[in-house]
Structures are given as structure tokens and as C-alpha cells.
Amino acid sequence: MSGSDAATKGLDEGAGLIVTALFLVTGAPALALVLLGRAPITALTLALAFPTAFAALFVAAVIAFA
Fold it and tell me: Second label for 50, Cα 20 to 30 Å away, from 19, 58, 61, 66?
């Protein structure tokens, strides 16, 4: 059972799917690079860039709307 407002539940689910897709888009190339043994620094950057940017934007949004 979601604690979200019924009117915005679809938006919450949509945002969750978008964020999951973005994690896959940044994680899949990183995983491929690691499995191929190529560019480990680039793979680490790809794997960490989106989650770090997302967390920073989330914190900025919380501060802005607090």
C-alpha cells in the first residue's frame, strides 16, 4: 500500500521507472566495460556519475522546497 496521494501515485510510479531506467542506462555500459576488462576508470565513472548527480539534485530539491 502506497503512502502517496492517489492523484499522484501514477507520477510516483513513473518517476520510479524513469530512475530505474537511468540506472540501467549508466550501469549496463559500465558492467560491459568491466566484463571486457577495458577502461576500468571509465566504468567506475559511468557507474557512479548518475547516482551521485541524482543524490546531489535530490538534496538540492529538498533544501529548495524546505
Answer: 66
